[in-house]
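[agent] plan:
  1. take the single chain provided in the ticket
  2. run structure prediction with default settings
  3. attach structure tokens to the ticket
  4. add a short note for the reviewer (M.T.)
[agent] executing step 1
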Amino acid sequence: MNRLAGKRALITGGTTGIGFETARQFMGEGARVMITGNNPANLEAARSELGPNVFAVASDAADAGAQKELAEKVRQAFGALDVLFVNAGIVDMRPMEQMDEAGFDRSIAVNLRGPYFLIRALLPVFANPASIVLNGSVNAHIGMPNTSVYAATKAALVSLVRTLSGELIGRGIRVNAVSPGPISTPLYGKLGFSDAELKQVATAIQGQVPVRRFGTPNEIANAVVFFASDESAFTVGSELLIDGGMSNI
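[agent] step 2 finished; step 3 output follows
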């Protein structure tokens, strides 16, 4: 299919998991794609697998100042931008009494401040029409212990979907969000658990999902393709929860 033929897209955090799969699907749908990452090995691996037509750019999602540099690279590569998928993010799961200021600030920087200032820096670059898709989380809607800071950052992103929709639609920019539940990605391996602990955590989380499994990156990427395409031209300010029913219990 060619639902994104001719479209120019930026995917932050596009080297693994949901971001990588979305980049793969975007390219399969005819889009020109730029991905970002801050791990050189992952960036090179993604570039190698996606092929020579992808633009793979090193960029720190937590650095508000770096977003201007990224916006300029987008302008130089594409001229204008049709689709932005804000996917880069971190999960810092800790009880409140163990959360320190550095961890709090890092989560805010990566999950909220960086995305906010990236969108701001891209405003002169966006085409008309254009689509922004934010990657939220089911945690913005449920009271899962040990996720207070992470959930707050994702709730803020979901709020931006509504406020920026009202502010940017006059420019022809639609803003929507996908909010995944537990997804089988390398993210869970970065939480610092031992293999045994990780298995226990995964089993406990899976038990909270009515469909009794983790989702897949492909299932999230399918939704992002829809929001990026002209099929969703009348969809503005919406959030699609893709969580196996987790938010309904």
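[agent] step 4 note for reviewer: The first helix runs from residue 17 to 28.
[agent] ticket updated
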